[in-house]
């Protein structure tokens, strides 16, 4: 017997294991990096017992991570041939119980083997099972084919989902470029595009005007640019399909406020930030002057260059 102790742990030193090992032999809790016990070895022993009986490779031809998914998510197990001796079949099923506490301990397994050793009929059952290998091998192969089809279906669906996700990301990126959020209050409304007006309507989603954002699509469908927005009248809004008198009044009020803001922006632009001086040689040549202020009728002259004011 060749043993691999690569994922072994001292009993009592830890209850968790890192993801290390070969998936067909790994218990579900090991695959999921959950707390483990010696019962995860019981699971692996069940797989080894299956190998000894069938002389087959566990989950042959199926990728490791797919095996992990099948075992954990779909609770698939290795196929136990129908003609397998009942005592071995029962033991393997118990070794592969999803609940670790329900699996037998190795002490229990040894006790069972002692009982099997006393069963005279077991030898004949095992020989008969091995003689009909070609029959039950087809059962194992049929299960593998079913799992491989499931694997292909999963791969196809995964590919479709990935393609769909990519398309959604591309569309999201396109919309982000098209409806790029900008500080609209910093630009002349007359230069606004249709998407800018769309964004402005959506930004009205606050306070008592929280219902106005629903009309963003109407403005966009009617190709309302910033210049056209400033010219809209209540009659125009009604013709566009806005039937609520209150909403028409609110939008009209917002447009009037926008006009006032735009007027201030165009006629009284904000002060620009002072640009940094690149070279000290460009500094103007300042001269120091001494000024004397006379306030009232009292003046005290001094030799200092400081200005003194006496009231």
TrEMBL record:
This is Uncharacterized protein. It comes from the Eukaryota. Keywords: ATP-binding, Coiled coil, Kinase, Nucleotide-binding, Serine/threonine-protein kinase, Transferase. The keyword Cytoplasm does not apply. Residues 1-117 form the Protein kinase domain. The keyword Nucleotide-binding applies. Pfam families: PK_Tyr_Ser-Thr (PF07714), SAM_2 (PF07647). InterPro entries: Kinase-like_dom_sf (IPR011009), Prot_kinase_dom (IPR000719), SAM (IPR001660), SAM/pointed_sf (IPR013761), Ser-Thr/Tyr_kinase_cat_dom (IPR001245), Ser/Thr_Kinases-Pseudokinases (IPR051681), Tyr_kinase_cat_dom (IPR020635). It comes from Tegillarca granosa (Malaysian cockle). PANTHER family: MITOGEN-ACTIVATED PROTEIN KINASE KINASE KINASE 20 (PTHR44329:SF288), SERINE/THREONINE-PROTEIN KINASE TNNI3K-RELATED (PTHR44329). Residues 133-178 form a coiled coil. Residues 192-261 form the SAM domain.
